[in-house]
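[recover] target loaded
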């Protein structure tokens, strides 16, 4: 067994590998860019080596620096994680020449399966069902349109060396095909250093279901069940689960056997994933094979009881698998939610900055948090916006969902925007709860983006009661510390008005042991908690049922977060509440004559000039953030008056780029 391994990655996956290596008694070496000098994976590893500036092309993607770090530290093997160099055959080959083990498949498998065009040809030869398409490299946008017309719209334009949703576009007509070709090649070049793209038929109402395979160097290959990864946004997975609520045992076995046949065709050794697209009749078609560990591997670990990172390390060390296909047993249900630094209420735009508060839920047998961040750390514009992966387990799917809802309630993040509200909304969406999902579900259910109205609280009385509890506790404390004369103590009234969502709710609050009784609409709500001032989580009971609500006090307001919903609550005396209703609201400044940056990022292109007349829908600028290109278009006809930023500028949120007449 190896004594020391190097992790050629960063963030959450680097920390994940370090945990397993530590469990196995293996020392670890971290590599880091200048932006990651204070990162969690650097602190967790036994040793750490600086490999370059923040851009990945100058640090994490420089193979020579990784190899040199192995030599300098005496690392015997490299775990590549996912992304970066994990599917780069040249990297595996370079390590082999230096006598350093690659904790992953051999060069042959990476070359064959890592390239989507080649993998589709091999899949056909292996008898695996494939999606109709054109698997040769496309020269330009004109040829892309010609091919799309032959296949028939809609089509999917995909980066050959792609992954993680980068370099992918759906086209429904010629114009979208030309534009999609340009965007896909640019993103592919930026993310993978390889701008080749291909086109295949886009299957409508599809499910994305993948099979986990594991092979060793002794000819043993098994499949470890499937993962349902259909809940996606812009081709990025959001929620994953194992097993799939859609597959039956016959389809599961057929997909697993085809996945193993494909892996055997390339002598696959290590953990890998064969991805399929499945239609409404359970017909399945090969998409691609990822010759690496997947982001969503924890759900498979939960239901199989296997540590996939440990299995990869043992295989790379030459050990045979300790079990056969018959020994693979699936037990229970697991769900993973990806917590991203993005603002779901602003069309999921990336968010960067310092994690002022970071309090993940407590881990247990049914809750797991894989992360690479910590309180006080930075979310950088240079890398993926993932903050953490939240995984829950249950004997049934319903129990796994219930644990996920509770865990999301407890996940407290401040300093950057995050998508927890969106994840919570998905957990209670009828289509998700009944398993009627597809890769189109998010686009169909939220066609105009995600809004606060999409997560109405199903029990407003809970928020009203807790808001009343908080305010009364503050008032009781103020009455005690204001230096009242004996016999002239301040009396706290019991009648108040809760203002929430533009409505007024009269309440009566009576002190009780360990809390208060709140009378609202004729009903008494017994709120009990040992909550202390300043604590971000309000934990207690409401009429005997356990509750957990995130709490912030902002001047006179209490901001409450629960089950994905957010409510600003004010509690006032009846007289003050009546006067508050007469207060005018300050109108925000008119910024309609400006193009504002919707996200922090790098301005890569200004497509207009001063004096130019633009039409609604016309391209104005392109911003690159979190390795994705974002095109900004005019929402109405206008004339450009001033250009206020230049390509190469780093933009802040709402920074003005263009002024119109």
């Amino acid at each position: 067994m190896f004594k020391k391994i190097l992790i050629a990655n960063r963030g959450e996956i680097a920390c994940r590998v370090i945990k397993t290596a530590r469990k196995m008694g293996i020392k670890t070496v971290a590599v880091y860019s200048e932006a990651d000098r204070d990162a969690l994976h650097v602190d967790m590893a036994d040793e750490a080596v600086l490999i370059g500036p923040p851009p990945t092309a100058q640090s994490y993607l420089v193979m020579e620096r990784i190899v040199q770090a192995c030599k300098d530290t005496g690392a015997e093997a490299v775990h590549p994680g996912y992304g970066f160099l994990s599917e780069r055959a040249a990297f595996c080959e370079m390590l082999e020449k230096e006598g350093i083990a690659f904790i992953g498949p051999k060069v042959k498998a990476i070359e064959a399966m890592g390239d989507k065009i080649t993998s589709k040809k091999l899949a056909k030869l292996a008898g695996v069902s494939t999606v109709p398409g054109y698997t040769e490299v496309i020269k330009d946008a004109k040829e892309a349109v010609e091919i799309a017309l032959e296949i028939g719209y809609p089509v999917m334009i995909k980066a050959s060396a792609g992954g993680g949703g980068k370099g992918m576009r759906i086209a429904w007509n010629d114009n979208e095909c030309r534009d999609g070709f340009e965007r896909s090649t640019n993103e592919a070049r930026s993310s993978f250093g390889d701008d080749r793209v291909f086109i295949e038929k886009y299957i409508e109402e599809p499910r994305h279901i993948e099979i986990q395979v594991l092979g060793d160097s002794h000819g043993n290959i098994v499949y470890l069940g499937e993962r349902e990864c259909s809940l996606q946004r812009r081709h990025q997975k959001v929620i994953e689960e194992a097993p799939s609520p859609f597959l039956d045992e016959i389809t599961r076995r057929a997909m697993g056997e085809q996945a193993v046949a494909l892996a055997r065709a390339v002598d696959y050794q290590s953990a890998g994933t064969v991805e399929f697209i499945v239609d409404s009749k359970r017909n399945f078609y090969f998409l691609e094979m990822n010759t690496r560990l997947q982001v969503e591997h924890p759900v498979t670990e939960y239901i199989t009881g296997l540590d996939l990172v440990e299995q990869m390390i043992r295989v790379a060390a030459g050990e045979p698998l300790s079990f056969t296909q018959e020994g693979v047993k699936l037990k229970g249900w697991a769900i993973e939610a990806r917590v991203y630094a993005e603002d779901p209420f602003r069309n999921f735009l990336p968010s960067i900055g310092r994690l002022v508060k970071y309090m993940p839920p407590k881990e247990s047998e049914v809750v797991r948090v894989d992360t690479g961040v910590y309180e006080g750390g930075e979310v950088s514009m240079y890398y993926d916006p993932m903050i953490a992966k939240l995984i829950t387990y249950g004997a049934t799917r319903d129990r796994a969902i219930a644990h996920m809802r509770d865990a999301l309630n407890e996940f407290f993040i401040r300093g950057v925007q995050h998508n927890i509200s969106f994840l919570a909304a998905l957990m209670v969406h009828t289509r998700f709860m009944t398993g009627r999902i597809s890769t189109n579900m998010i686009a169909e259910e939220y066609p105009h983006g995600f809004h606060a109205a999409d997560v109405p609280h199903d029990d407003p009385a809970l928020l009203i009661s807790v808001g009343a509890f908080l305010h009364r506790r503050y008032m009781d404390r103020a009455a005690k510390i204001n230096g009242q004369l004996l016999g002239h103590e301040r009396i706290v009234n019991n009648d108040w008005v809760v203002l929430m969502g533009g409505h007024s709710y009269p309440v009566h609050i009576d002190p009780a042991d360990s809390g208060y009784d709140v009378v609202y609409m004729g009903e008494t709500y017994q709120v009990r908690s040992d909550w202390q001032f300043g604590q971000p989580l309000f934990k207690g009971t409401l009429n005997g049922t356990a509750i957990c609500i995130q709490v912030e006090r902002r001047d006179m307001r209490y901001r409450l977060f629960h089950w994905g919903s957010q409510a600003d609550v004010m509690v006032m005396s009846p007289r003050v509440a009546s006067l508050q209703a007469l207060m005018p609201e300050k109108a925000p400044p008119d910024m309609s004559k400006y193009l504002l940056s919707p996200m922090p990022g790098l301005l890569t292109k200004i497509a207009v000039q001063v004096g130019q007349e633009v039409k609604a829908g016309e391209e104005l600028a392109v911003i690159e953030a979190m390795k994705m290109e974002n095109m900004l278009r005019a929402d109405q006809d206008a004339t450009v008056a001033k250009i206020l930023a230049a390509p190469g500028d780093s933009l802040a949120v709402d920074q003005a780029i263009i002024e119109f007449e």
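[recover] notes: The radius of gyration is 27 Å.
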